[in-house]
User: Fold this.
Amino acid sequence: MGTQKHEQPPVGPSAEATEAMPNLGPWEPLDSLASEFKFNETFGDKVRSLQGQGYSGWRRVRGDGNCFYRAVGFGLLEAVAAAPGARREAWAGELWKAFEATHVRQDNGQGSAFAELQANLERLGSTGCWGDAGTSEDALTLLHESFRDSLAPTDAALLQCLRQLAADGLVANAGDAEASGAGLSYQDIIAAMGEHGSVEEFCAQEVLCDGVEAQHIVMNALSSALGVNLRIMMLDRSSSSEEVPVIDFGPRSGDGEGQERPMVHVQFRPGHYDLLYLSGQVHTP
Assistant:
């Protein structure tokens, strides 16, 4: 009688592991992701498929209910920091304006952290530096250090800005059937869920609350508000070992002047999001 093989499902980190981990881990080769699920052949096949699609690394993101927002926000800041001069300045300036419009500095005692985030963004755009004591050569290292610790105030400010941007986008485009990318308006999608009476109520309970994971319409609203291209690679539990499913959000065709937009790559496992990196992509340590 043969030995029965049990596969480990590719789920996110446990609650115990989440408590112990920083907001952001170091860059790791994809082989380390596959080794975590070495008894799951299907998952190993999916990781190898990612490698075949040009990915070479990943970064662990703390799974505290904010992992989607944190992954997108930090991935975007990395892209800005790694961009060449004129593009970096333009992207940093656009992000500064978007964050300034959220008025997060007035809420929940985040004033000093918000001011630090905005000052670093302005400095990054104009000089390529992150932090008042840094240089352009160590900007990526200092960027990672400023968000790594689980109690980092700039992390909390960034998350609040991103949540507010997503909520503002949902409310502003509530009745626009094209904005959602699903052929229905945000208000119709939320009504169909049957759990919230309005877009404003949905935002208050699902978007603006810390620790509540992002739903699909939030991902679309946030990528549009940021003007960022977002690609999510779906590492699900399916038995298929074919190419990993992809979901794209954002203005992939670029803006009206044809300027290239930042792009963030994220991998999804049931209940969790981590960052992904293409081969040759510049990244923090």
Remarks:
- Residues 1-9, 253-258 have pLDDT under 50 and may be disordered.
- The first helix runs from residue 15 to 20.
- The beta strands are 24-29, 55-61, 229-234, 246-249, 263-269, 272-278.
- The chain has eleven helices and six strands.
